UniProtKB/TrEMBL annotation:
Lineage: Bacteria, Pseudomonadati, Pseudomonadota, Gammaproteobacteria, Oceanospirillales
Record carries keyword Cell membrane: no
Name by which UniProt lists this protein: Heme-degrading monooxygenase HmoA
Domain of life: Bacteria
InterPro entries, alphabetized: ABM_dom, Dimeric_a/b-barrel, Heme-degrading_MO
Entries under Gene3D superfamilies matching the protein: 3.30.70.100
PANTHER family on file: SIGNAL TRANSDUCTION PROTEIN TRAP
Species this chain originates from: Onishia taeanensis
Length: 103
């Protein structure tokens, strides 16, 4: 079973570049986690749309292990200021039931 987690984040105008730069310069803690498959940071293309940080896992248990790990704590230890984020957003979790890939 593939497990997807989407974190919808409303970034305050003027903080977009810093937000993206933090992901580009990240330490790579998540990349080494058992069960981690992929991560994508999606930039919104419309007004008021949030960024989406999408992660793909082998299972829900793998995602939960990441959230409970010391690596997760290190990856989130130096957050951006509160004013960098708007209200709304949140975490969405999905089990993939149908998948189509290019041949």
């Amino acid at each position: 079973m593939t497990y997807m987690v989407n974190n919808r984040i409303h970034v305050t105008p003027g903080y977009e570049e810093e937000f993206e730069a933090r992901f580009r310069a990240r330490a790579g803690e998540i990349d080494r986690q058992p069960g981690f498959v992929a991560m994508r940071v999606l930039r919104p293309q419309g007004n008021q749309a949030p960024y989406v940080v999408e992660t793909e896992w082998d299972s829900q248990d793998a995602f939960r292990a990441w959230v409970g790990s010391d690596d997760f704590k290190r990856a989130h230890a130096n957050p951006m200021p509160k004013e960098a984020f708007g209200e709304g957003g949140g975490i969405e979790q999905f089990e993939v039931v149908i998948r189509a890939d290019a041949n």
